[in-house]
Protein 1
Amino acid sequence: MTSSHRVTGNGARAGQPREFFRPPAATIVGFSPSSAPSRTLLANLRREECRFAGPVHLVNPARAASGEVGYVASVRDIRGPLGFVYIMLTGEKAVAAVRELPGDITTVAVYGGGFGDIGRDDLEQELARWSADNPSGRRIPVLGPQSMGIYRLGRDSRFCGITGPAPAPARPGSVAFVSQSGALVGAFLRAAWCKGLGVGCAVSIGNGRGFSFADAAAAALAEDEITTVCIYVEGIARLTDLAAVGRDAARRGKVVLLAVGGESSGGRSLARSHTGTLATESELVRGVARQYGIVQVANVEELLWGAEAIDRAGPCILDRGRAHGVALFGLTGGGVILLADALERRGVDLPPPSPGGARAITRVAGVGRILNPLDGGAAALAQGANLTALTSAYADDPRYRVVACVAGMGLPPPTPNHVHLYSALAAATARSGKAGVLVSPLPDSTSGAWDMDGLVVARGIEEGAVKIGVLREVARLGAAVGRRTRSASRDAA
């Protein structure tokens, strides 16, 4: 393991206060109506979907001096708590503004640059020191520099405090997104809402000097509604932070998906100039992630696909101590072959059915066939009753946790026989408590209008492979946790 040269937070070990996502007020230092980020931040705080109930203070000395209503010259002029403080200044001015903050605040987000991006690492160190040693006498999270802030929409909290667009309609949900890149926060929210996926919270850590990805993950995991935390970082400096996140998620029975940027030479160079990250070797990161139950994917798109798959699969995929095998069949041989190839590239095997499952499948498909994966497009399978029997045989096999079917001609289904097959898959997997995945061979512009209730839907082979792989890995980790728990119980007895 490597260690970082930086002063960073340790919230993954110490835990985060509940007020992180529920500040009593919001204060924008350096607010200017001529600044697009300032205007967007204020609009987000006031938007209908997640209207912030607390006071919003605008700090601008020049406008306060001219007598404009709604402005104060200094944070010292604000009565009551400052709550979540946004610093809309850069470099030395931002650090000076942070130094002036009194103790009655919950979190600070530094929006601007002028720090490590221009070689001023000393200013970032100053922010980290203030986070640990400030007038409040306690550690105060400092997001940034280059942080877009946070977003929270849940049962008892509304705070859309990000400086980038948060397009309507916002939807609450069980997914959290933690990102080192600020712009990706708005992009992730937009894409998730377009897919109908609810996001309960998002945290833009920026350079992460006073509040790391592990701190943000700990805060998200502590939220009751959150079951899946998606993390994007541009390198991991301390493997102990990653391990702490994995232990916390396992203890709470939740899932962490991780994407690490900067693995190419060009990406590493840009990440170093962007945030100053000194990254651990990628192989070590992968090893620690796997050891501590964190599911690593390739990019932010796969984070979104994985979160969507877990959300659609529901509690069955999080159930501990069951099998985690994948079954694959369909009415298109070419589609099944392509998906099997894509799964193998991702290290997802397709185990043969159990003896009982093999007998049930053979009664429908006939002998002399490979039973997993299976090309079910033969004439013998063209009748509805056979399709029902086939899907039930896979879903009832205790060896399988994920049952995937390749949609014969895309989505929505063009023939009654396809409708029957997909309906049978949904019914069989729901009855058996398995995750059913329906994969279209190619992305289809009309597929968004058709959504088979109860199934994970993937639009294209690669999206299907990612979703199946994530579900298999989550089920595998759950099974491993269950085995360790049972073993510990036997040892205790």
Protein 2
Amino acid sequence: MCNAFFRWVHKNDKKDIFMFTNFQSDYTSTKMDILKDSNSIAVILANGTVLRKINAIKHILKETKKFIIISLILKIVPNFIANFLYDIIANLRYVVFGRYDSCPIFDEKYKSKFLN
């Protein structure tokens, strides 16, 4: 699922603002100590603020201007409920897609978007 989500964000990032790394990368372990114990999506804003789980999803949807109806629903639903549902989906993804030790990205065309 991480690979599919990465590809979706990459395809829909018309402003070319998103860069990617995985939680096991040298970049994360040396420059983003705040993420070392994370196991879900995180967005790091230019000012250093870290958005996690549903707040990260909201930010990505806002910046890509996709799934506007879902974005509106997420604005209405309290974060604790949305994060609860996020956790359920996150746990189910391992059952459906399997579990990787890292998020594999195979295509060369994506290498420029990754922070190692």
